[in-house]
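Appendix B. Raw example, untouched.
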Amino acid sequence: MSIRNSDQEVIEVANDWLQSGHAIYLVTVVRTWGSSPRPVGSIAAVRTDGELVGSVSGGCVEKQLVESLLREQAENKSNVASSESAMNQKISTLHVDDEQARRFGLSCGGELELVFEPLTSANALSELNEATQKRQTLRRTVNLNTGHTELQPLDDCTVDPNTRFEYNGSIVSKVFGPDWRILIIGAGQLSRYTAEFALALDYDVLVCDPRPGFKQAWQVADIPVLDMSPDDAVLAHATDSNAAVLALTHDPNLDDLALLEALPSNAFYVGALGSKRNYEKRVKRLAGLGLDDDAINRLIGPIGLDIGSRTSAEIAISIVAHLIKARNS
């Protein structure tokens, strides 16, 4: 089973519902005030019979939104001829103020503005669903006045975070697809766990391992293994400020090649597997190979947060936890 991030899950399930003949509302958080638990751009899909996938408030107001939609559907059915659709075909917005939020169960308060986009065509999300499953990056733009939707493929997976979601009252623009990239050196068990966790955190993940046996044993179908030298892989894929490089082979002949290019780059996180003793030896090797102190001091080693992890899965958790901390800061 492939690993899906939250957007992928919503789009995939919503697409399945549409393909099965259901009508849905795609719900998007477009503005927040105060202590809203979900950021702008968060999405959910609500089926007209009450089924829901995704979250716009961390679970606090979804139940009430579904009940409100069902009441609206019941009212529409009683007010329209049988040949007409009971579903509201217009895009609408809902402002949940602080008092409503508390009444709905959002105990921390806060305010939300939501856009409800009605979708009935079986193919309304098929292209977007196919692209996100292939881990491609697209910008989806919706005109709230006309209902016109446009999909724009983006070549660069490192989209400016400030433009990933935009709303001006009449246009909603959201980027779907990975915006942060991880390059993992090594295709072993630790790399597999780390890659799967990172996929769920919306990273674009690449693995580099020129060793034939490791490449052949790799079992994560959604993640390619680059058959190239680690230094070339870093230069080609992971030198910008949205990239992280994780040297996880425990083989200095491979890990050090990657570090020589990653440490002087703009990558926001560069870490290497190994004990404190191995870290000290690696620092001496890198200095001997010509790296200056500023670059070497960027190296995170031992890699990950110190949570007492021992197994491969635990170490992978410590690594992705450290990535979360670094990315958010």
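End of appendix B.
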